[in-house]
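Hello, quick one for you while I still have it in my head. I'm working through a protein record and want to make sense of it properly. Would you mind checking whether the tokens look sensible for this chain? I owe you a coffee for this, so here goes:
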Amino acid sequence: MTAARWRAALVLLALVAGAAAVLTNLALFPLYSLNRDDSVYVALARLLQTGAVTLPADHDAFRPWASAVVGDRIVLKYAPPWPAVIAAGDWLTGSPRAALAVSAAAAAVLVALLAAEVLRDRVAALTAGALFALSPVVLVQSGTYLPYLSALALGLGAAVLLLSGARLGSTPRLVLAGAVAGVAAFARPFDALLTVAPFGLAVLLARDRGGLSRVGVVWRVAAGALPVLALTLVYNAAVVGGPLRLPFTVTGPQDTFGFGERGVFPEYTVEFTPADGVAGLLTNLVGTPGWVAGGLVLVALAVLGLLRSRGPGRWAVAALAVVVPLGYLPFWGPWAMSTQWDGLALFGPFYWLPVVVPLVVLGAAGLVRVARRNRPAAAGLVVVMAVLTALAVPGPVAGHRAVSGQYRAVQQVVADADLDDALLFLPRRGDLGFVSSTPFLENDPSLRQPVLYAEQRGGADLALAERFPGRSLHRLSEDADAPPVVEPLQVDAGPQVTLRLRLTAPAGRPDAVAYLTAGDRTREQPLPPSGEVSWTVGTAPGAVPLEGAGVLAVGVAVPGDDGPAGRWERRIAFRTVDGGARVELLRPGQAWARTGGGPWLPDAVGSPVEEIAPVR
């Protein structure tokens, strides 16, 4: 293949991969994905466009979910390299999707360049790039704003520059390899280590390094890496408070490697054991063939390609298939994505994304070898590979479209509410963002927009309402069994406020009890036949006293033989002001229900606890 055709083919590969990324995003992830981390990367990109990397602490109620207050600033959990690409793409083209195209195109081309460097065969290299771009896991990742594909592209860029720089004895390439590796480490340190280390070791062990000594190679690579690493340390010190403290740690120390209690936030952890780590490794291992172009046929061809190829570079490529899975064994993510949520089923083994590289590079070598010996056999293999790939696609596509449909339903409810100059409280945002159905409801860093989206925080909501006095108040109430509802809210205030409720108990249950709970105080009374109950809270004699700020609950309980058979209640945010002389309530309260010994669940539609206009 001539140099001109080679360059033209790489351009075509880049265009196809980039277009596929944008189309995948439009088709499957128009409002972000089930992972929801992608919205955080876009949030940081928009923050970077303002010239900042953190938010003021008083934006806490509006912050993206994977973030935390550090000192007087809000720090997002993720590092800025990939968000910077998103921001640049948005600035240059008017759409953040440009970054998706760039990331996918770069990764596919770099796979081809790596294959060309290792195999010394441009036909096989282009085949590897095509197999990579067509792998379902790559297509899915390329359509999201998640960082795994861009991180892999950085690692591949460093690997190509290392191998070619050592072969040619090129100082510019080796210095640039160090710089790219440094950016990769800034973005995702552990992924950079696992991806780049095998190639660095291969260069140091090679007999021929273009006339350079091992020390000479190391110094050249270090010259490129050290300035970027210094920038990383400065960023960490300025943003997180210490040069060796990563932004990733701001949500707590439990989201890390090792065994024990693991989770994104301390309040939501699971026990992760060595057996779980092995189980996660095996589950991802079994699932990986279904997420690469050609499935098990590609795996078999990769074995053939490894055995029939020449050159030490192939062992560095093959090492990724071992180093990455073993490196991630003590991390809870690969296990959680196969047991705690549908990560593996919908997104593929994204923590193992570098493993796709040896499969496609060595698989392409095996396929080209078969084609040069027996074209009909190779054609038959390609048909089988295409069928296996096609069979792997419908499940994830259907799953992602279902999630997108749920997001669109919520989006439509919010749009139909026709809010303007409003404050919309979202009950499942903030630290619960990983279960939120509204990742697409985003705040501009300036907070200057028609609707502000705030995390619901109980009594603190009243202080937030006071901070934005001109905005109407609303809450998005979600119920697993019914469409979401945008409820208008109002603040009722006075020395005391009387709550009038209409409570409906299950038929034939005269033993139902009405109750009010505020802090550690609970008041009860039998439910009258009319179902109407009044409670007075505040400072009046006989009123239920309230202190500080929090949430009170009013509802009805139906006793059972071994405990409550059911409870239905409304939770009302309150706070006291003017030195405790006045009380404020944010009404109506949010409806919740609990049946038997099950968990409390939202009960937005058809709640048997109805609030009647307040009496002061």
